[in-house]
Design goal:
By secondary structure, this protein is of the alpha+beta class. It is built from five helices and three strands. The radius of gyration is 22 Å and the shape is elongated. The relative contact order is 0.13.
Length: about 110
Amino acid sequence: MTAADPLSLVFSALADPTRRAILTRLSRGATTVGDLATPFAISAPAVSQHLKVLERAGLVERTARAQWRTVSLRTEPLDEVAQWVEKHRQEWNERFDLLDERLRRTKEDDRDD
């Protein structure tokens, strides 16, 4: 099953450590595909496949200038992921706070009995 919604594409892309390392490298600035592939112990076609996944998720964009192909990071999809995580973190924290309060009251009620 292939996820098609943007959030699923980003989470799927981020699931791979090599792709996360590529994004970390790109956070320092745009670079060529060749320079980007240098620190990885994988073939250039494998790096290209990772870039295709990142590109499909909207996390990178490739531009051509003269004979150079440059890859750069796009942060907008990461902002959407951060917003989704923060929204759910707030909901979970509220539920944990309610559970904590309920357990505290139950413990107090047990002491009173």
